[in-house]
């Protein structure tokens, strides 16, 4: 332990840190598994092959040594009598006969004092059987030779020594061939092992690759990807869990998409994000409410068939929805021919007053252009009146436990509704307090509309008629209106609106 109290990293950890520096940032699991399988199998085959090769080489060497010892022993046995009788001629004949055979390259006899008596063929010079033991390995002109020694015993006494030289070229060649064959077999099996490891690894990780592709598609918003599962292991369980999760997310997305058609997309997203928290209740907020309805709708609806009324309302409400989305408004509800919009809830917006005014102006511009198109096609047109107001109001889920609705209520909302009913066709009426706001006054063009009594108010409410907004806002509005009509595409063929049957 060092003085700083930190233990020095181990050798394996340091080696692992250095090895990771050489690895790429991304290494597929299939390659990792293939490398591990190949390393284990090649290591095992290498150890097994080395063991088998060593055993085979040792067996070949032992067999060669036994053969040499047998020849040397036979020579020692055959020269006993001539050696005791000092028959040098017979000894020389025996040695020459032995040396003339194909396996023996040399032979020699020594007396018990290690003095050379007879010698033929190849033998190392100045050898002493007592010093070299049973055998001596040496070379002659790059030819490997081995000289074997045997003791000549007569009635338990040493009478001399016999020496026989044999070539090791055959055994060396056999060992070389065996080593080459073992290496080639190991290399071939290693290649097969590597290929099988790669194929097995890719087969194992194939469902994982499909899972990665499916999760990438899910991250991109494609939730209808279903993985086919044929595994009964942990990977199969993982794929089943993914399919269940994807099915749940798809169902949630479908519910949210359908729900957003009945309530504001922002409200739908908020409800789907906290399903367990959807309950009755509200909170006081400062927001802006906008009401827009059709002037003289009762007379229009009396002379039109229900299908024509529905077509007309859908056409105009589509434009109102476009303006609300562009200025961060939320469509609270549709009430017959009236649309109620709120700004500043459920998502906070510091400029909800100004955005509500811009939305009102954009709605009137859209209605005017839509009426021009409808007149060209011979369809019934309508004009809207708009009233809006800002102030404290209660926002939340109102209704009953079985059926509730996210909405806003309060005196400020009621005043916006009454201002809408007081406005003329094509007008936008707002209270004086709204246009006097420092954040709105410099960016709004309006004219005094007069003071009107409002039921429930002790004093008359001073109102203004909004004519337009700041120039930069007008430019952005014009661009969005142009885009809206481009998105609508060419109008359908002109046709007369069906009348209500009498």
From TrEMBL:
Alphabetical list of SUPFAM superfamilies matching this protein: HAMP domain-like, Nucleotide cyclase
Domain of life according to the entry:
Bacteria
* Span of domain Guanylate cyclase: 288-420
Q: Which Gene3D superfamilies match?
A: 6.10.340.10, Nucleotide cyclase
- Which InterPro entries has this protein been placed in? A/G_cyclase, Adenylyl/Guanylyl_Cyclase_3/4, HAMP_dom, Nucleotide_cyclase
- Pfam families from the entry? Guanylate_cyc, HAMP
The name this protein carries in UniProt is Adenylate/guanylate cyclase domain-containing protein
Organism taxonomic ancestry:
Bacteria, Pseudomonadati, Pseudomonadota, Gammaproteobacteria, Oceanospirillales
């Amino acid at each position: 332990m060092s003085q700083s109290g930190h233990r020095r990293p181990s050798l394996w950890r340091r080696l692992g840190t250095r090895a990771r520096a050489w690895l790429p940032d991304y290494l597929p699991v299939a390659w990792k598994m293939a490398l591990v399988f190949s390393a284990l199998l090649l290591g095992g085959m290498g150890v097994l092959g080395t063991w088998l090769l060593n055993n085979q080489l040792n067996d070949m060497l032992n067999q060669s040594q036994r053969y040499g010892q047998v020849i040397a022993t036979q020579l020692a046995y055959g020269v006993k009598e001539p050696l005791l009788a000092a028959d040098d001629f017979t000894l020389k004949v025996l040695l020459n006969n032995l040396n003339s055979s194909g396996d023996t390259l040399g032979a020699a006899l020594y007396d018990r004092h290690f003095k050379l008596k007879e010698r033929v063929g190849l033998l190392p010079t100045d050898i002493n059987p007592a010093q070299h033991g049973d055998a001596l390995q040496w070379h002659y002109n790059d030819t490997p030779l081995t000289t074997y020694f045997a003791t000549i015993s007569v009635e338990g006494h040493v009478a001399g020594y016999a020496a026989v030289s044999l070539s090791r070229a055959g055994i060396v060649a056999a060992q070389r061939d065996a080593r080459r064959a073992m290496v080639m077999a190991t290399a071939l099996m290693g290649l097969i092992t590597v290929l099988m490891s790669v194929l097995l690894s890719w087969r194992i990780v194939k469902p994982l690759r499909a899972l990665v592709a499916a999760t990438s598609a899910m991250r991109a918003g494609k939730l209808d990807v279903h993985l086919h599962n044929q595994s009964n292991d942990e990977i199969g369980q993982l794929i089943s869990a993914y399919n269940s999760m994807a099915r749940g997310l798809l169902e949630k997305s479908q519910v949210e998409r359908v729900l957003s058609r009945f309530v504001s997309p922002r409200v739908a997203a908020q409800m789907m994000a906290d399903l367990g928290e959807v309950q009755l209740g509200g909170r006081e907020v400062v927001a802006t409410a906008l009401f827009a309805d059709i002037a003289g709708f009762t007379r229009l609806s009396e002379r039109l068939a229900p299908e024509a009324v529905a077509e007309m309302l859908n056409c105009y409400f589509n434009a109102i929805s476009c303006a609300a989305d562009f200025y961060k408004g939320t469509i609270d509800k549709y009430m017959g021919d009236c649309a109620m919009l709120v700004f500043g809830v459920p998502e906070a917006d510091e400029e909800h007053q100004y955005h509500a005014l811009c939305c009102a102006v954009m709605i009137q511009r859209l209605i005017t252009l839509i009426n021009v198109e409808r007149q060209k096609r011979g369809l019934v047109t309508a004009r809207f009146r708009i009233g809006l107001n800002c102030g404290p109001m209660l926002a939340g889920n109102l209704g009953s436990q079985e059926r509730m609705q996210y909405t806003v209520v309060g005196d400020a909302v009621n005043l916006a509704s009454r201002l809408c009913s007081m406005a003329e066709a094509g007008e936008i009426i707002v209270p004086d307090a709204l246009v006097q706001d420092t954040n709105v006054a410099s960016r709004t063009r309006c004219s005094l509309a007069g003071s009107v009594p409002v039921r429930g108010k002790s004093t008359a409410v001073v109102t203004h008629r909004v004519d337009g907004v700041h120039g930069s806002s007008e430019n952005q509005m014009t661009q969005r209106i142009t885009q809206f009509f481009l998105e609508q595409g060419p109008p359908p063929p002109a046709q007369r609106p069906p009348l209500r049957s009498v």
